[in-house]
Design goal:
By secondary structure, this protein is mostly helical. The protein has helices at 4-30, 38-63, 69-97, 104-139. The longest helix is centred in the C-terminal third of the chain and has 36 residues, at 104-139. The mean pLDDT is 92.
Length: 140
């Protein structure tokens, strides 16, 4: 069995994931997306879609930790792989920003939005790393 302390650490890490997601949602609510080029909106859509996948794989890995820790380990590695993909998408999106002209406020909001997405992915990976450590120390 996993210790209560380990479970509390997982919950704290998940709280960081949700904090970054909420931050991104708050920024998106005020971001004037009508100023963004269509191809850039598509990049943002793909990035958020990949982040959704990352969060869902992490969530499933947590739900299966008691039933099938080997499956959980596989999913933790999948979270890490997805996070690397998100890092590449993040850098490509930042690079694309230099090709269009938006107001300074929009640019700042956009940077903060992108940072919140990337930070969410980082926290997903950190949580998956902790799950792996927890599993190895508990079940092996």
């Amino acid at each position: 069995p996993l210790s209560r302390e380990d479970l509390m650490r997982v919950v704290r890490r998940l709280d960081l994931v949700t904090d970054w997601l909420k931050e991104g949602g708050r920024i998106l609510a005020i971001l004037p997306t009508n100023e963004l080029p269509e191809n850039f909106k598509n990049l943002l859509f793909e990035l958020t879609k990949k982040l959704r996948e990352c969060v869902h794989v992490l969530g499933h890995s947590i739900r299966t930790v008691y039933e099938n820790y080997k499956k959980t380990l596989e999913e933790c590695y999948e979270v890490e792989k997805i996070e690397r993909e998100i890092d590449h998408m993040y850098m490509r999106t930042l690079d694309e920003m230099k090709h269009f002209d938006v107001k300074n406020q929009t640019s700042l909001l956009l940077m903060e939005f992108l940072r919140s997405l990337e930070s969410t992915a980082d926290e997903c990976e950190n949580t998956a790393d902790f799950l792996r450590i927890m599993i190895v120390s508990t079940f092996h």
